[in-house]
Amino acid sequence: MPRLLTPFILAAGLSCLPSLAAAQAEAPKPLRAGMIGLDTSHVPSFAKLFNGPKATGELAGIRIVAGYPGGTDFGPSKTRVAKFTEDLRGMGVEIVDSIPKLLEKVDVVFIESVDGRIHLKEAAPVIKAGKPLFIDKPAAGTLADAIAIFDLAARNKVACFSSSSVRFGAGLQELRKNLALGTIAGASTWGPCSYQEGTPDLFFYGIHGVEALYTLMGTGCETVTRVQADDADLVTGVWKNGRVGTYRGLRRNKAEFGAVAFGTKAIVPMTKGDGYEPLCREIGKFFRSGVAPVPAAETIEVLAFMEAADESKRQGGKPVALADVMAKARAAAPKAD
Which pTM value belongs to this model? Predict the structure, then answer.
């Protein structure tokens, strides 16, 4: 190599060092994730997104490394836990036999158990271990349990959030931000609404449509009224500023997710749905930042709306005040210290 070229080559090489160092500094710290409750299709779907070769952006660097099967006598759980456990094992994820063993191996946690009744029992040791956690829908099997979970997380300063995947779908987010609407004066959402014994009627599947309603309307619902028929539920909420939002739960007939927003300037329908990737990207951002994309107060109100719907049904369709439902649940919330 000619000696005259050597300084130029060295200089060129040295000039690359700052950019290389910057790239290394920008690379996110790897996070080991664990899954509790391997009895839902969300388990393999989420694992493929985070552990797959195309995991970029918010998904990058977060790898699911351990899973605890869990499972209960809940119908959708006992028939699926074995299959989805094997699906996860087939992706190279270690399967452990207890939550404490899982917590030894991970930095962050997904609670995926399809049976919301055990979410408080599962979440408590995670929170006490100081691990940030995402709780798949519903946050809990009762409003009282959900309040206990979020109160425990707040006392221990542990980041925690829960959401339906529908909330972050591109179509719903575009509708929420559509400037043509002006101000959203009301909204209607709809979707499949099968029940599962042991939890409030809307907790199992109706929650998707109710979360969509809250995505458009925000918090502040004051009263809820429910009409139930064989093929459908119609739940009407009246917000504190006089706005009205409705959720229609569909059974037996054609059932798909949808929404329409009634604005001061236009009426606009939702144009498309989405899969799980938008939610998983929000989870990835949450695990990195510790900032919940859905405030605990909103998740609690979503569950209060659904419990109020059950109470309205028990009272023959009378309006039920969310404040009363919330006060009763707070009084009944178990202490999870």
Answer: 0.90
